[in-house]
Design a protein that fits this description.
320 residues; alpha/beta; Rossmann fold; eight-stranded mixed sheet; four-stranded antiparallel sheet; 9 helices; globular; AB_hydrolase_fold; Dienelactone hydrolase domain-containing protein
């Protein structure tokens, strides 16, 4: 009869050292993979056959041409000089008639077109909401990728410390972007029959800089009049809230390096104006979590947003 093999039990210290050795062997590969993921890699501008020009004209004084790159597994656009709107329409059998403009973020210097644009719009369309990704005009950045990457690092490192601009300056500071967002509302309403959209049920959701544009569109323009808004990891400092302000959904992570350490008085302002508001403060998630799957509860923001839309009857067809 064959003798059973003897089990060898290693002392804890040796097992610990072996685990460290294995981790050390794997670490260079992991670090390299992370660096490759974070690296900005230029790509050819993708075909955008469904994109519709908004008619706001080319960015005044622009010298650099639109270009695209990949980072974190997503596509980004920069030096956008002509604004467009790309529709993502729901299955007619599921369509509620509500619509939403999706504004990606990127510090008004780049746009996270997948994570905060197309991926969000597809998910909303699957829920019956007609979604429209706005590629708004951006501030000009260096043509070379190295210089652009350096400028972004400098901007975001300073953004965590810099005071936020007053809401009253939004109309002047974001004039091209506000013209684009207002034109987007106008275009959707003009094609409401074609896209089966209720003109009184068009909202807007923005991420980071896109959230700033959403708030400015709501508070600094007269023609857009969004029916509801989403502010996803945008600044939540105090603003003057009109009595007819739309319902607002806001979400941010407490460890957001840009806005998580600031005050959230905008929520109190909305409540003081007796306007509907829902606020999700996630313990962790950082900045820019968007539609990325993460091991944090911030990943649940989209499901919470959809439930909130349903609570406000945006998923239920309304026949006038």
């Amino acid at each position: 009869m064959k003798k059973p093999m003897k089990t060898i039990t290693l002392p804890f210290r040796i097992k610990h050292l072996l685990a460290i050795s294995v981790a050390a062997c794997l670490m260079p590969t992991f670090v390299q993979a992370q660096e490759d993921k974070e690296k900005m890699t230029p790509i050819a501008s993708p075909a955008q056959p469904d994109a519709i020009e908004l008619g706001t004209g080319p960015l005044p004084g622009a010298m650099a041409q639109e270009s695209w790159h990949r980072q974190y597994g997503s596509q980004f656009a920069r030096n956008v000089t002509v604004a467009t709107l790309t529709p993502f329409l729901p299955d007619p059998a599921k369509a509620s008639g509500a619509a939403i403009i999706v504004a990606p973020g990127g510090g008004f210097r780049t746009l996270s077109m997948d994570n905060e644009g197309y991926d969000v719009a597809r998910a909303l369309a699957a829920k019956g909401i007609a979604a429209f990704v706005i590629k708004y005009r951006l501030r000009q950045t260096p043509a070379s990728m190295a210089a652009f990457e350096k400028s972004m690092q400098e901007m975001f490192s300073g953004a965590a410390r810099a005071p936020l601009p007053a809401a009253s300056n939004a109309a002047a500071d974001l004039a091209p972007q506000l013209a684009d967002s207002t034109a987007a509302f106008r275009l959707i309403r003009s094609r409401r029959a074609q896209w089966h959209v209720d003109p009184d049920r068009i909202g807007m959701i923005g991420f980071s800089a896109g959230a700033m544009l959403t708030m400015a569109t709501t508070l600094a323009t007269k023609d857009a009049k969004p029916a509801f808004i989403g502010n996803i990891y945008g600044p939540l400092g105090s603003m003057t809230v009109p009595q007819d302000a739309p319902p607002m959904f806001a979400a941010i992570a407490a460890d957001d390096p840009l806005f998580g350490g600031r005050d959230f008085t905008l929520i109190d302002d909305w409540r003081a104006a007796k306007r509907p508001v829902e606020f999700h403060l996630y313990e962790r998630g950082g900045h820019g979590f968007g539609m990325y799957p993460k091991a944090t509860t911030s990943t649940g923001w989209f499901d919470a947003f959809v439930r909130w839309l349903d609570m406000h009857d945006m998923l239920r067809p309304v026949h006038k």
